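As described in the Methods, two query proteins were run sequentially through the folding procedure within a single session, without resetting any intermediate state between them. The first query and its resulting structure tokens are shown here.
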Amino acid sequence: MSRFGPNILITGTPGTGKSTLSQELASNTQLRMVNVGEVAKENQLFLGFDEKLQCPILDEDRLIDELEEQMAEGGNIVDYHSCDFFPERWFDIVFVLRTDNSILYERLQRRSYNEEKIKNNIECEIFQTILDEARESYKSDIVHELQSNTPENMENNVDEIVAWCKQWVPQST
């Protein structure tokens, strides 16, 4: 069975522009945006709440079960800040957004993140945690690092990914 469209993962530290990029891509392609946080919220796919970071704890296994059929069909842009738990077979390409720390700090402050959460996310970006996760979880030729500091970066990233989508050829599974 071949999929009707590619599956793309947009990942990176919170505040790098994943949701904005995913929304732009969805409006410029025939692909569906899958905001993992929203899917988890709608279906109550949580194990509990992290008081220190002030965020819910995702039930990754239940999320995978929830998305399996949709991902098998293809044509999805998955937006999430982590990537190592998704099945490798799901994605044709993975984009890791990176943002300079000073810009990222300001974005996280505007979101009213507490200092602990800001510090945690800035360290994640400094140590390229998400990029390393992606490189360890997927074939190296499908993992791409994209700068996401300016509106021009965003436009270039949209153009690059849309061009890639136009060249995508379905693979039989």
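Immediately afterward, the second query was submitted; its sequence and tokens are:
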Amino acid sequence: MTRPPVIAAWGAGVDSTAMIIELAERGEPIDMVLFADPGSEKNQTYVFIPLFRAWMEERGIPSEIVRYQPRHFKHWPPYATIAENMLTNATLPSVVFGGGSCSQKWKVAPQEAWTAGWEPARRCWDGGGRVTKLIGYDASARDTQRYRHALGCEDPRYHYRYPLREWGWDRARCAARIAAAGLPVPPKSSCFFCGAMKPDEVMELSNDELRVIVLMEARARPRLRNVQGLWRKPVLGCRGATPRPGSITEFIRERGLLPPSEIDRIVDIAPDELLDFQAAQAALPVVKRTPMGDWLYDFQHAVAALRTTTRLPDDPERASVRSRFSQGGPDATL
């Protein structure tokens, strides 16, 4: 390869998908497409990913899914996704507190780690060149801010290119391009509990995703000081904004997205059960600890059973229920 290799950073959302489609139509080279999977994208995104990977494969565009690999668990049960990471540490994503480290850790770093072992990139760097990395920032005002921030970040290994901005495409133009290619328009790419989500995005989430949001906010609540939840603080609805509380749990309750009894039981029981589980795992060698993902799987099945039970909050069976839930297993109920 005489030219520098070209990698597209694909977020499986509207902008980066449209970018790849148009570049392919124009015959521009893409040597690799990387999707960094934090394990907590929206369910709709995971439905779209294999569809578009098949579309790329048909056109000879290679793609890889990369993941951050946690290694140091100290006294915690092993976790594999950003949601499990948040629950383990009883915290919320950094965007809630004005940061952006979750993207660096779960998105950027895995892509760079994979590229570091990719032979075309190694040859390019050994020869003093830079890999071209395609970024899907569009021409909207919001992405313009992100673009201006990125301009100040020089990297001796990469030349960053922003095709959508070169073409003057906004998000609507990107959605139209995807539809014109005969593909379904994917949802906005983000974790299903991202603090930057809009109310209409929350309305589209599944019950499983909503339950984790309730659990995550309840788990973090004792440590929160200046924010109410994943949405930080309430929006009153001035200047055309959609009114909403600072807690997505309260929004879920207000809109009836989950039954109130289900929300109450998650908030009242699950955080303590998670603490009990973590304490039990801390006493074991790392290789014998049950992964956080197993506990979360049992949590979902336990909460789903609420819809077939009618126990009251002061039911005398509750103590034994808590014990069974903390042990996990397919028969655990909440």
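The first strand starts at residue 6 and ends at 9. We note this only descriptively and draw no conclusion about the first query from it.
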